[in-house]
Amino acid sequence: MIDGIDNALKAWIVSTLGDVDVSLEPPGVCPKHGCLSLYLLDMQHAPPANRGRSKIFSLLLRYLVTAWDEDPLIAHRRLGELAIQLADHPDYQLDLEPLPATVWAAFGIAPRPAFLLCARFEPERELAPVQLIREPPTLRAQALSRFEGVLLGPGDHPVVGARGEPPALGRHAVSDRKGYFCLTAIPVEPVRKQLRIRAKGRDLATTAEHRPDQPGPVTIHLDLTEA
After folding, report:
1. Which fold has domain 2-121?
2. Domain boundaries in the chain?
3. Residues 135-157: pLDDT tens digits?
4. Nearest CA-CA partner of 64 in 109, 131, 122, 130
């Protein structure tokens, strides 16, 4: 797990710099004799790693690296040597983007020389493989028909100039002076159709039964009393 990355980084730093105390505590929490702070600042999503046909879930661990010693020259030397070695490392990345002042304020210390060490973490958990489509999808033909209707308002007066459309079909029709409208190429199923009506500045939702074997328009009454 992530603690394995912690231990691997600590071992690599000691092998690179020699006898140095590596702390996982935040910067500013170091023993009096000095240390190098390797603080896990955050974790970010990383692009999944490919392993043949499988994709492995990955995280990018970003460690804030700072150094402290009673002799600032020693701290600066350790930080510089580590950055140089990190720049050519095949598994770790060096990020020299300065931290905002608010981060240092959160630690309660003044800004100091630092960099980010980025390490990839791949848990032993595979993402579900993508299923390949080896055959074209089977399309089922659906019967279509005309949907005729008459829009009536209060007192059975025709609603003129109303826009009617079935959701998600991309078709619409506008009612004439008799309230009549006609929608073409409408699926026969389901029999009970949902309609959105735009009439007299109002958006209304209604349903109506549409049966192709019953000729004639469907009468739809709209409640426009508040319009």
Report:
1. STM4215-like (3.30.2000)
2. 2-121, 144-221
3. 777 766 677 788 888 999 888 89
4. 109
